[in-house]
Amino acid sequence: MERWKGRVALVTGASVGIGAAVARALVQQGMRVVGCARNVDKIEKLAAECQSAGYSGTLIPYKCDLSNEEEILSMFSAIKTLHKGVDVCINNAGLAHNEPLLSGKTEGWRNMIDVNVLALSICTREAYKSMKERNVDDGHIININSMGGHRMVPSADKHFYCATKYAVTALTEGLRQELREANTHIKATCISPGIVETEFAFRHHNSDPEKAAAVYESMKCLKAEDIASAVTFVLSAPPHVQIGDVQMRPVEQVS
């Protein structure tokens, strides 16, 4: 991670869970991390914790609604003005709504596409532009995917969410191919966790907190810090090594 010290990383969805853990880990490694979310109160608190801990990097909170392209473009413009640009882009933000294919609301489907697919693609495009403008040839784009992007979960409330994550799998491989066609050494990686104990299930099952708790009580789940460790592992790979897809799940998870 030595070569990343002082360089700029963008982490989307950095207020809680995996995003917060990744932001903390990168700050600990000496990076300047722009952490964005719709609500930055928790990121501001995390930034203060990182500073108090004496980490060599810094965490810069940025308020951004990723379902709004104008806000994303404004964020990248601000990063360019204040920090020159993005060297590492961690597309972590994602959400799931309980909207089955046969009875779901279009609004919920659209929101999942806006955040899980379009925002990821817009951030990827703008991060690549930022790297090219500055002749950065060793950047890295990491998409936090899901095991749901590799097999369909047999639960109607997750089918549309899984479809958006299958899209992330395809987008990451498509990105890798386009980066090769562009003769660049910028890397693209997909990290696909199984069940991670975060606020995710409680947001997904917001009307049934007992069902959400049962998800995490059924096994020893992955922790957000496990995913953060995978991110630093990927970033630590030698320049000639391309890690395409990291699939990780709890030992006790069946599928």
Automatic annotation (TrEMBL):
InterPro entries from the UniProt entry: NAD(P)-bd_dom_sf, SDR_fam
Pathway: Steroid biosynthesis; estrogen biosynthesis
EC assignment: 1.1.1.270, 1.1.1.62
Keyword hit for Oxidoreductase: yes
Keyword Oxidoreductase attached: yes
Record keywords, A-Z: Oxidoreductase
Catalysis performed (reactions): 17beta-estradiol + NADP(+) = estrone + NADPH + H(+); a 3beta-hydroxysteroid + NADP(+) = a 3-oxosteroid + NADPH + H(+); 17beta-estradiol + NAD(+) = estrone + NADH + H(+)
GO molecular function, one term: estradiol 17-beta-dehydrogenase [NAD(P)+] activity
Similarity remark: Belongs to the short-chain dehydrogenases/reductases (SDR) family.
Role according to the record: Catalyzes the conversion of the 17-keto group of estrone, 4- and 5-androstenes and 5-alpha-androstanes into their 17-beta-hydroxyl metabolites and the conversion of the 3-keto group of 3-, 3,17- and 3,20- diketosteroids into their 3-hydroxyl metabolites. Exhibits reductive 3-beta-hydroxysteroid dehydrogenase activity toward 5-beta-androstanes, 5-beta-pregnanes, 4-pregnenes and bile acids. May also reduce endogenous and exogenous alpha-dicarbonyl compounds and xenobiotic alicyclic ketones.
PANTHER family from the UniProt entry: DEHYDROGENASE/REDUCTASE SDR FAMILY MEMBER 11, DEHYDROGENASE_REDUCTASE SDR FAMILY MEMBER 11
Protein name, per record: Dehydrogenase/reductase SDR family member 11
